Amino acid sequence: MKAHRDRAGPAARAAEEDLHRRQKQAFGYFLHESDASTGLVRDSTHPGSPSSIAAVGLALAAYPAAAERGFVSREEAAARTLVTLRFFQNSPHGREADATGYRGFYYHFLHMSSGRRAWQCELSTMDTAYLLAGALAAAAYFDGKKTEEREVREIADALYRRADWQWACNRGRTVTHGWKPETGFLRFRWRGYSEALLLYLLALGSPTHPLPRGSYAAWASTYRWRKLYGADFLYAGPLFIHQLSHVWVDFRGIRDAFLRKKGIDYFENSRRATYAHQRYAIHNPRRFKGYGEHCWGITACEGPGPAVLVIDGVERRFFDYRARSIVNGPDDGTLAPWAVIASLPFAPEIVVPTIRNIDEMGVGQESPYGFEATFNPTFPSDSGKPCGWISPRNFGLNDGPIVLMIENFRSGLLWRLMRRCPYLVTGLRRAGFRGGWLK
Amino acid sequence: MTRYDILIIGGGQAGIPLAHSLARAGKKVALAERKDLGGSCVNFGCTPTKAAIASARAAFQARRGAVFGLRVPTVEVDFPAVLDRARSIVMQSRGSLQRGFAASENPRLLIGHARLQGREAEAFRVRVGGESILAAGVVLNTGARSLVPPIPGLKKVEYLHAGNWLDEHRIPAHLVFIGAGYIALEMSQFYLRMGCRVTVIEKSDQILKREDEDIVSLLQHLLESEGIEFRLKTDITRIEPRRGGAAILVRSNGSRGEILASRIFLAAGRQPNTDDLGLETVGVKTSKEGFVEVDDRLATSVSGVWAAGDIRGGPMFTHTSWDDYRILESQFAGDGSRTTRRVVPYAVYTDPELGRVGQTEAEALEAGKKIKVGRFEMRNNGKARELSETDGVIKIVVEAATGRILGAAVLSSDGAELVHLCVDLMNAGAPYTVLRDAVHIHPTLAEAVQSAAAAIQ
Q: N or C terminus: which one in chain B shows less Cβ crowding within 10 Å?
């Protein structure tokens, strides 16, 4: 890294320093928005927010990156990881309505001070996958002989093995979205290209409760290949779908049956999707303010609504939380800076100038964690800044990918760690991935 | 007909100590009580609710054993035992009050409903049970009861309220609260922690509507996160009996819906017990809600008739009732200087507790005051982190020119205790800098109050 830096020019060094600063700021979320006794991470900075287990999974993956970057010591990273894993190992696990988890899965949101189910939320298969992916990344990183590091590996392994993916299929071929003690399994299943790619890979790799092989084909059977703005790619509307599995999995050079036929890998697919988002913003069919070459990033996120306003003679409907999407919407002019950064490994040549532009528009000036979750130049705001309305919050699910995709861009750390994870390797092979580093 | 110097109607938290005090001062005193001594505080309010909430908190702490590195396999709630414990503490307190009258001729305890029946010369004639007596002065201390709003169908279903909740030995599957004041919030969290599904319906857009929005919004999110469902801005149009409970028909944001409750807990406010006192026979003025109108010495519109406790309007707390006793003692047997111009703190015994005193930030601004505000989040306090009780925030509002504390909100574990740091400063008329510059023990939650003072700008 040092030799590389010395060779780089001042502009490249400035860009590198900027990424380092953003990575450190975003990691601050996990330092300050987590509970020291349980490792639980708040879903958002909203007062009274419960913990999101997905955010916990991102924290577990972020601690190794933070240790490597010197944001925390390796000992502190190990201690935080161990507290978190021990909590999930020891917390109430059973059918009762206020447990922490059941059948190796965990409730989507947990009450911060008790660690038990928050609201009446569901036992979430997808969010458990994020949690387990974080645990496995930690297990791969903490490979030392110290008692703490050994215990990290043991508990991560036990948590992963406990997840009963076959049960989560509810007698079907695909995995359900979740389960509630009051009403049983949720109606929806993970089918079609989505962030559940990671879920299927982890579930297929399980030595204890693996999915049947046909499950991956069943989930991929509804894939949609689309041509948008001159690029052919496996379609999903929001950016995050093209990013979150890539936080952990190095898809460069490996392909499943679907993408073998198309001649590309998922990394290239995400690069094309990133470009499609940029081109959509340039095209700007709905004429939102700000959209352009260096102002894009549509994903599932919160927004300034709900509201209906007439702006410059046009009636605009604004949403709160929505899975915003190209090209058919919903799109209300809300953009997510974190979703831009999470595409850094795929297309740095368009991401870096976009980060700079969003910064110059005034986003990220109020939050200690860097860019706030979202902004909307179209929605009226008193700020007087070109970025218009800015979300008052940060989310763990947004700051995590900032830390980790910058790290993957800088060093490929998470990808290297997970390439060593035998369960993921098995899962990839069972899903039919071949080539590249899997050979 | 027996004559007394003073007849106190109602054995609540003002009436009982006043009876003993005036008797000690040489006056001939009787106290009339129709049911149990101690008022709502002892019999179904403060005492049993805080005892029950203590059980709920113990269950909660046991359930979060994993947070402390403990493995607690299961926590089972024996609900009748929880109520019995609360009731036993009630009996202890009530018994102590009864013993105070047992062998006493002065004050004398008269059991029965008391009703004014006009005057006889200068004295007031009062019927107590089957007996008529005369009293030179009368103190009204009859308290308040749950307000029953005019909701169609409400009277056709059985419901719990602040006065009868101790009698229900089964945990309802789904308990629906009508109202989101302090009773609803405290009891909703209690029942939730007992294992009950809980929904709170409120017609306004905020719980605890007199409090600052930022404080109650945080409290609401904490309670929601624990499992309570809030339905704000929701009007109840009708209640219908259903098998196993009731259907609550609601209207919210223009759409209609139905909430099925296995039980309803009515907590829509309090109304004074003044409707059957015969006040009209002597001309005591009341408000349209029935509260007795009093001056700051607690004198009513009729010379010789006084009112104390919840029926006099204003703050309805045990501690204000108790202070009412001191005001009346001052009028009857002192220099008469003590008045209702007092600093009144109060608390909402949720977990975390909300300790409150004085003006809210919004009230101070509305009054046109120039203020400075200090805030401190509990998660930044060492003791809170050590206890894993980091939920909450402290806010202190001071007058910009003098630094005197106008009000404070302490949403924290032990918030009801901590707020007294501000209460005492307010009573002393001292500026917040006294608190800011004091030495506090480390580690304590009290340091957080000091940190809020240090954050004032």
A: C
The residue length of chain A stands at: 439
Give the residue from A24, A20, A66 showing the smallest Cα distance to A368: A24
Does residue B261 sit in the same domain as residue B292?
Answer: no
Output the pLDDT for position B412.
98
Q: How many helices (H) and strands (E) does chain A have?
A: 17, 15
Residue A227 CB contacts under 8 Å (≥ 6 apart), including other chains = none
Question: Among partner residues A37, A49, A116, which is closest to B388 by beta-carbon distance?
Answer: A37
Question: Rounded to the nearest 5°, which phi and psi values hold at B185?
Answer: -70, -45
- The verdict on A117 touching B (C-beta cutoff 8 Å) is yes
Together in a domain, B130 and B231: no
Cα A434 from Cα B13, distance rounded (Å):
80
Cβ <8 Å between B385 and A90: no
Tell me how many domains chain B contains: 3
Pick from B225, B390, B391: which is nearest to A119 by CB?
Answer: B225
At B388, which CATH number?
A: 3.30.390.30
Decide which of B217, B247, B268 is a domain's last residue. B268
Residue B25 shares a structural domain with residue B131: yes
Q: Which residues, in sequence order, are bridge partners of residue B31?
A: B8, B109
Q: Which of B324, B411, B316 is nearest to B360 (CA)?
A: B411
Residues of A in contact with B220 (CB under 8 A): 48
Q: Which of A37, A114, A120 sits opposite B60 (nearest CB)?
A: A114
B200 CB neighbours in chain A (<8 A) are none
> Do residue B103 and residue B235 come from a single domain?
no
Which pLDDT score is estimated for B439?
95
Closest Cα in chain B to A91: B66
pLDDT attached to residue A8: 66
Residues of A in contact with B224 (CB under 8 A): 48, 119
Instruction: Flag whether B340 is in a domain.
Output: no
pLDDT of B427-453, one tens digit each? 999 999 999 999 999 999 999 999 999
- Domain ends where: B268, B300, B321? B268
| Separation between Cα atoms, residue A273 and residue A278, nearest integer Å | 9
Show residues of chain A in contact with B390, CB under 8 Å. 35, 112-113
> Cis before residue A330, ω within 30 degrees of 0?
yes
Residue ranges making up the domain that contains B46: 2-145+271-333
Contacts with B229 from chain A: Cβ below 8 Å: 119-120
Is B338 a member of any domain? Answer: no
Q: What pLDDT was estimated at residue A2? A: 43
- B59 and B193 housed in the same domain: no
Using an 8 Å Cβ cutoff, are B269 and B164 in contact? Answer: no
Taking only the tens place, the pLDDT of each residue in A289-314 is 999 999 999 999 999 999 999 999 99
A114–B64 C-beta distance less than 8 A: yes
Residues B136 and B178 grouped into a single domain: no
Residue A208 near chain B (CB below 8 Å): no
Name the residue in chain B with its Cα closest to that of A96: B74
Pair B140, B170 in one domain: no
Q: A10-32 and A396-410 are packed helices; what angle lies between their axes, rounded to 10 degrees?
A: 140
B339 within some domain: no
Residue A221 sits at the chain B interface (C-beta within 8 Å): no
Minimum-distance CB partner of A47 among B221, B227, B388: B221
Tokens of B261: 């409750």
Q: What does the pLDDT read at residue A1?
A: 40
Q: Which residues of chain B have pLDDT under 70?
A: none
- Looking at CA atoms only, how far is residue A99 from chain B in angstroms? 9
Nearest CA in chain A to B59: A114
CATH number, domain containing residue B183 = 3.50.50.60
Tokens of B273: 């017990």
Domain membership flag for residue B396: yes
% residues pLDDT > 90 (chain B): 93
pLDDT the model gives residue A230? 86
Which of helix, strand or coil describes residue B89?
helix
pLDDT in tens, A170-190: 999 999 999 999 999 999 999
Residues B107 and B168 in one domain: no
Regions of chain A where pLDDT drops below 70? 1-8
